[in-house]
Amino acid sequence: MPRKIVDVHGHIVAPSELYSYREFLIGTRGHYGRRLKGFSEEREGMSHGRTGVIPPEELKHFAEEHIAWLDRVGTDVQLVSARPYSLMHSEKPARIVHWWAQTVNDAIATQVQFYPNRLQGIANLPVVWNEPVDVVFDELDRCANELGFVGVLLNPDPSEGRAPMDVPGLGDEYWYPLYEKLVAYEMPLLVHSAGCVSIRENQSLHFINEESIAVMSLVQSDVFETFPDLKVIVPHGGGSIPYQVGRFRGTYWEGTGRGGTFDEAVRRLYFDTCLYTEEALDLLVKAVGSDRVVLGTERPGDGSHKKTPAEGWADDITAVLRGNANNTAADLDLMLGDTALDIFPRLRKNLEAAETAR
């Protein structure tokens, strides 16, 4: 298989009907079932037989728009997950969280079926605030065994800012049953916070705060001793941690009694490049090493805006990495695709199958 540029951090592009269905679930709280009125049995069979919210051809149209965005920057393959702000993991009753997760996963799977050589699925796990982690297992099994997804997106704060003190850190044994299944499935974990209802922080700040907490919780735990084959990617350059390594290298890390160095501990994780300034990208690579960095852009998403007319799009991150004289050709090969294909074995298999089928 020829070398590919792989973006590990993308989110579904879909019509408004998908999000209208989410509002239907929240508004009814599931009292009228999961299906919208007015859909025939034939129409309900669309989009993998769940809700029939969007006809497959319409999902194909939006996938084509999505791929056009990727073509503009030369991305060969993007891993696609749910839009994090929409995940509503703290909503009640729990059944609407599960129904929404299944619906979005079905929509992603439909788009992947149309363009398996360009898009691949990252599963939305329906974690539910104050419930055991095994509530996600049925959907994880379905995404792995039926839908062929290559990884999972995990929200480290299912309370969505309501009660973060009540949520176990990712180093806690609460999460171990999930890690065990992910290792068995060879599915990496993309740590991505979701919605935030706190009045103290907006959604984007919540992302960075939760990713920072996730890194610290993992490196201070026995997770990687217990699950040495677990692969964890932290988006947005790892929250704040790579830019604060000086704070944690000395007395703090010695006080943990973990042994080794803080820098070595951080390098047990992977970090994506979903950062929108050259300075931040350069610092990330210097802090964790090019072998621990994978391309992530969220394109199209928050970064899909012009920095200036002359500089172009903020999320044209591949061009920024290539334009940095500190990055060697070997560094670029690792960051732009080789590492992603190495840590996502199911992705490599799916792409090889797609190439054979063409």
UniProtKB/TrEMBL annotation:
A molecular-function term among this protein's GO annotations: carboxy-lyase activity
Signal peptide region: none
Database matches in InterPro entries: ACMSD, Amidohydro-rel, Metal_Hydrolase
Gene Ontology CC terms, in alphabetical order: cytoplasm
Keywords: Lyase
GO terms classed as biological process: secondary metabolic process
One Pfam family in the UniProt entry: Amidohydro_2
Highest taxon of source: Bacteria
Domain annotation Amidohydrolase-related: ranges: 6-345
Designated name of the protein: 4-oxalomesaconate hydratase
Organism annotation: Streptomyces brasiliensis
